Amino acid sequence: MKLALRVRCVADTPMDYASSGVDIDAEGAAIASLIGSLSGSVRQPGTRGAPIPLPGGFGGIIEFGDSRLALATDGVGSKLQLANSLGRYEGVGIDCVAMNVNDLLCVGAEPLAFVDYIAVPATDPATHAVIGSSLAEASRRARITLAGGETATLPGIVTELDLSGTALGWFPAGGAITGERLEAGDVVIGLPSSGVHSNGYTLLRAVVEKSGLSLTDAAPFDSEHAGRVIEGAGEAGASLGEVLLNPTRIYVDPIIDLIDACRDGSGPCASEDLKAIAHITGGGLSNLLRLHDSLGWHISDPLPVPPEFGWIAEVGPVENLEMHKVFNMGMGMCLAVSEDVVDSVEEWLAARLSGSRRVGVVTDEGHRVTHADSDVVFEHY
After folding, report:
1. Do domains 56-172 and 178-371 have the same CATH topology?
2. Buried b / exposed e along 280-317 (16+ C-beta atoms within 10 A)
3. Which of 302, 303, 299, 298 is nearest to 367 (CA)?
4. For the chain, which residues make up each domain, given as ranges?
5. Cβ–Cβ under 8 Å, residues 249 and 197
C-alpha cells in the first residue's frame, strides 16, 4: 500500500534533511564518538547516583535507594526560528517540556520537575513573560514542578532566542520499561501527534522557503485533522505558521496514568504486559530499533497522516522514506504490549486520547522496521 502523500517528480530533485543542513546519520556517528570518549561514573553500583545502563534508552537512569531517577535533556531546535520570525512564543515552552518529559515516559518514569535554559542576544522582558507563561502551561499539562532555570544574554554567540531544558523523573526500583521483555507477536499501539512536533524543522523551513508562501498566509491545505486543535488559530482558520508552530503533544496523560494503574492492579493489564514505549522524534520510525537489539517491527496500519506532511512531501518534493525518517507522520508515541491484552489497553487509551489504536506488531524477521509502504524500511537508528 502506498500512502496518499506519495510524490513522484522528475523535474525537481527531491529534498532531504541532509541537503537542508542536518545529516541524521552523521549526527548519530558524532554522538557515538562523544559517548565513546566519556569516562565511567565515579559513582559505584549500589550507591546513590550510580548509573544504570540502558542501551538505546530515551533517558539516563541512576540509582536512588529503593527508587530510580531518570533524566532527559533537549531543546526546541530550529522550530524556534519560525517562532522568532513571527514573534510567537506561546507554544515553545510546551515544545521544550514535551521533548523532555515524553522521553522520560519511555523508561516508565513519572516526570517530576523541569529546569529551563534560555539564551538570547539581548534581553526582552515581554518575550520572557510569554515564554514563562508557556512553560507554566507546559508544567500543568505535564503535571510537573518548574524547579528553576537560567537565562543567559550572549551577544555575539547567539543571534536568536534559544530554549532548552532538563527534566527529572522517578520510578520504583524494578519498574523500568526497557524493551528487554519484548517478543515477536507483541502488538504496537500508536498515539496520535498534534502535528510536526519539534523535529525536522531545518528541512521544513527549506520547503516553506521554496513554496514562496509567508508564514502568515492561510495554510495551503485543510488543517482539520482527527479533531485536533491548532492552538492560536483564529475563527478565520489557521495560518501556515500557526499549523507549523502547533505545540508538541505532551503524553504524560494518559501514559503515566496507564503505567500507574497497571502497577497497582487497577489498569487494563499487568505491568509486565507493558513491554516498550517509544517517542517518535528525530529519526522517525527508526526510533523503534532502539528498544531491542534483534527483534523487528512492522507498521501494517499506520495512523492517519496530518495534511501538513502531505504538503511538505509535495512541495519539496520529499520522498516517502525521507518523510518517515525525519518526521513523526502522525504518530508521536507508541507502546508495545502483550498480544493477549491489546484489546483492553487499546480501549483504555482511546478513551483518554482519541485516535489511539493498534498500528503494527513486533516481528522476529530481522532487526528492522518495515511498513505498509514497502519503500519505508529502516535497518539502523
Report:
1. no
2. bbbbbbbbbbbbbeebbbbbeebbebbbbbbbbbbbbb
3. 298
4. 56-172, 178-371
5. yes
Q: Helix %, strand %, coil % for the chain, to 5?
A: 35, 25, 45
Three-state DSSP class for residue 5: coil
Q: How many other β-carbons are positioned within 10 Å of the β-carbon of residue 123?
A: 10
The tens digit of pLDDT for each residue in 101-113 reads 999 999 999 999 9
Cβ neighbourhood burial of 81 (10 Å; 0-12, 13-18, 19+): middle
For domain 178-371, which architecture applies? Alpha-Beta Complex (3.90)
Percent residues over pLDDT 90 in the chain: 84
DSSP result, 209-252? HHHT--TTSBPSS----TT---TT-BTTB-BHHHHHTPPPPP-H
* Region of residue 197 (left: phi > 0; alpha: psi -120 to 50; beta: else): left
Q: What is the pTM of this model?
A: 0.91
Q: For residues 304 and 330, is the Cβ–Cβ distance under 8 A?
A: yes
Q: Which CATH class is domain 56-172?
A: alpha beta
The span from the CA of 245 to the CA of 278, in Å, is: 23
